[in-house]
Amino acid sequence: MLKEEFRRAFFSWAFVLALVITSVCFAIGLKDYGGPVAPLRPEDRDLFPFDRNAFDAFIYAAGMGGFFAIFAPLIAVLPFAASFITDRTSGYITFILSRTSFRRYRTSKYVANLLAGGVSTSLPLLVGYGIINIFYERGLPPVPAPGEAWYAFFPWVNANGTFGYLYRTKPDLYIFFLIGLAFLWGAAWATAGLAVSSAVHNKYRALVAPFLLYVVAHFVISVLGVPEWSPLNNFVPVLYKTTSPVTTFTELGVLFLLSTLGVFALAKKKHVYE
After folding, report:
1. Count of domains for the chain
2. Which regions span the lipid bilayer (predicted)?
């Protein structure tokens, strides 16, 4: 059963579409960041080393300059989150439940959906980072002496927010943290979408609901004056300087726990059949 749900989740046009959207969002951000060589006179480039570099390029493309951070919840739910609804409308659920238990069916779908959501929001970032490392220099601009001006795309000693101190000391580890975080958030929002599809009968409502929650939660939390708890700022913690491991992983954990409880509480055999 798990193998079949994996096949349906990963070998589908919806999953390919999610990967394409993530890749396009990343590419737009990278284009906005600029090419591997800054528009300087050749004689000035030695004075400003690493003014364009692989680490800053990734951070900007993946979070600060593109649309990925905004649309990530919608991307995560595309591959498989509405599958309870599509299984019911297509009659597939009747076929599959004649061969396995509802509990096994639900658990297999939960795992496949979780992984599909996480991969759709992280795999293009991982591939993009590999490509960036081929063309962009691997290094960071030096920190200027007190009183001197910065010449860097990001005038940072450390990056903003959660684990930002890794930016200068272990930049590759910091990038892999951001990619791993994208996987975890994609998995959590995909699970939220699956929970919604357990409770509603309209596929499009199930797909849009997590995105609306994401946007509304960001707006309300920002109005309340605690933006470090915004789901947007914790998905891309570099966006806000007071995000921290506490805000990032507490919010992620609560989302994942409530979404998981929603799937197993709402996805009852009688309701899914209806």
Report:
1. 1
2. 57-82, 110-136, 173-195, 207-226, 246-267
- Radius of gyration of the CA atoms of the chain, in A: 21
Query: How many Cβ atoms are within 10 Å of 71's Cβ, its own excluded?
Result: 17
Strand, coil or helix: what is 137? strand
Q: How confident is the model at residue 17 (pLDDT cuts 50, 70, 90)?
A: very high
Q: Which two tokens stand for residue 264?
A: 């197993």
**Phi/psi of residue 195, each to 5°?**
-60, -40
Burial level of 215, CB count in 10 A (0-12/13-18/19+)? middle
Compute the average pLDDT of residues 158-166: 93
Q: What is the pTM of this model?
A: 0.91
Token code pair at residue 177 = 């943290």
Domain span at 111 = 2-273
* SS3 label, residue 4: helix
Which amino acid appears at position 170 of this protein? K
